[in-house]
Amino acid sequence: MVTPLGSSRRGILLINDPVWVSKILTDHDLFPKNDLFVEALEDLVGNSMFVTSGDTWRRQRKMVDPAFSHMRINRAFDFMAAAVHDFETRLRALSASGDTFSLDAAMSHLTADVITRTIFSVPLEGEASQQVFDDFMRFERQVGSIDIKRLLLDKPWSPTTQPQPVRDACARIRQHLGTMLDTRMATEGLDDIAGAVLDARDTDTGQPFTREELIDQLGVFFLAGHETTASSLTWAFYILSVRPDVVARMREEVERVVGDGPVLLEHTKRLPYVRNFFREVLRLYPPITFLPRVAARDTEIAGRRVKRGTMLMIAPWSMHRHQKMWVNPDRFDPDRFLPEREHEMTPGAYIPFGAGPRICVGAAFATIETALILATLVRGFDFTTLDAESVRPFARLTTRPAVEIEMRVAEVR
Ligand code: HEM
Q: Which residues does the annotation say bind heme (predicted)?
């Protein structure tokens, strides 16, 4: 359950033991985020809470948490619903024309639209937000692969730089985010996530975030907040396209609970099958495949001596599919999350949002957003994958299909 991965200048351990996973994710001073991972993202999200450690992270997390409180997310719901409404219009046009579309690109666009509306109160159609999105797609394609040579040969904490095209894309994204932030700061009376982060004060000094820090945090909400959700929804709609039995159960639940009208916030909390379906998608296709950490000092893990600088890879992907932790792990079975089957689950084996103090700040946001999207679109449309047999997952920045999934959609009459 704790396995060395190959031989390299710095040790690499794959940790599949839920007890040790929990200890490592909880002690984030001894096991901070891995330096290679931090470097890969630093040009884009600077010193944001996603990559910082120690007291810097503690201060940032305290200031950011209120922006994702239940009350605040509830207020973001109308922005989410407006984005989904526009997306339905797009799908209706695709249904009428019979044109095919890339599921991955469509989901990235939809979730980026949700994020720009909920953070900045602007739709993705705005020029600056569209440019952030386009450059982000470029960044995502280039940064996702690991440099194996470096992994094997470099000493821990060896400084490196990203290739120039990646750095250029990051600089452009930060510039656009700065423009969006300045426009947002000049607008009064908006009740969005940017507003909550602008109002946040350090509890010790009373100081707000600086402009650079704001760009760091808002950049990470954009990155972590749309890329992960797009990945999970891509797998969700792919599964729906090949499982008519699951579609029938979901549609029945949505029609019974919601009826014909719009899906409201209160409905999203009363759709257990939709929720368990999404949990099962996150189990088999966790968007974040690795939670990378590093040993900050010499220590011991599961009776094994671990040298400072050893990389610790916690892999939701392998934990979620582990034969010893799940009954029929390869079977897609949303009902495994029913309360009466809870005893089948291994405590600590399900970590799509991470665990411990650094658990995903946007988990509640993503849960409501995806329930709204799934309920609305499953009731209204049938999805067909053109070449379902050839679909394969691939670990990039998140879990994506190796080749884009081509789809056709038909409106349900
Ligand atoms: C299905 C959707 C999502 C999944 C599966 C997901 C997954 C995760 C995971 C696994 C982590 C922990 C990473 C680690 O410990 O190394 C994390 C952290 C984080 N996520 Fe999410 N996430 C999702 C949606 C979101 C959304 C919608 C937002 C914001 C709008 C967000 C913002 C963040 C931030 C800021 C962190 C860093 C927290 C910290 O280090 O204190 N995520 N996410």
A: 360
pLDDT tens for 174-208 read 888 898 899 888 888 888 899 999 999 998 999 99
**Residue 360 labelled as part of a binding site:** yes
Q: In this predicted complex, what is the ipTM?
A: 0.99
Q: Is the dihedral of CA 247, 250, 253, 259 positive or negative?
A: negative
Q: Any idea what the CATH number is for the domain that residue 30 is in?
A: 1.10.630.10
Supply the range of the domain harboring residue 260.
2-411
Q: Which two tokens stand for residue 232?
A: 């999970």
What residues does 4 pair with on adjacent strands?
13
Most informative mutation of 56, 228, 283 for ligand 1 (most atoms within 8 A of CB):
228
Residue 279 CA to residue 366 CA, distance in Å, equals 11
**Ligand 1 atom nearest residue 231's Cα:** 1
61 Cβ below 6 A of ligand 1: yes
Ligand 1 atom at shortest distance from the alpha carbon of 365:
27
- The count of structural domains within the chain is 1
Pairwise CA distance, residues 241 & 408, whole Å: 10
Is the CB of residue 229 below 6 angstroms from any atom belonging to ligand 1? yes
> 3-state DSSP helix/strand/coil percent for the chain, to nearest 5?
55, 10, 35
pLDDT of residue 145: 57
Q: Pairing relation of β-strands 101-102 and 291-294?
A: unpaired
The one-letter code for the residue type at 179 is: T
What's the CA gap between 357 and 29, in Å, rounded? 11
329-339 core/surface letters (b: 16 or more CB in 10 A; e: else): beeebbebbee
Q: Cα(first)–Cα(last) distance of the chain, in Å?
A: 51
Measured in angstroms, how far is the CA atom of residue 158 from the centroid of ligand 1? 26
| Residue 102 · residue 67 · CB < 8 Å | no
**Nearest Cα residue to atom 8 of ligand 1:** 353
